[in-house]
Amino acid sequence: MKIRAYYSLILLFFVGACAEKADEGSVIRNVGAAEFKVLVDKGEGQLVDLRTPDEFASGYIEGASLINIYSPDFRDQLSMLDRETPVYIYCRSGNRSANSIYIFEEMGFREIVNLRDGILEWTEMGFGLVQ
Predict the structure, then answer these.
(1) pTM for this predicted structure
(2) Percent helix, strand, coil in the chain (nearest 5)?
């Protein structure tokens, strides 16, 4: 009986420690285009296009700022964003933005929302782009 109580205490300790860590970390959401549009339309976050300048010039989501993920000063550009305000990120298909999440997290961004299937899904859903 004492052994069972001992293991229960250890389990509670680890569960508590993990829950505390989760509260300190970033909130990360991968969402589809419809939900992304609702969030962006609220205007409560920072919208960041992670594509190249040529891709951006071919059309982007209204209100987006371009921060080229391949740029040598990518992290410097991200450091100019507000880490406490939600950041909505997207690329062409969702791969680059999904892979960049760890950088946002590492830099201390509190809420990161990724357009799961990128601007391709955005346009498939009939949502417009700025040319």
Answers:
(1) 0.81
(2) 45, 15, 35
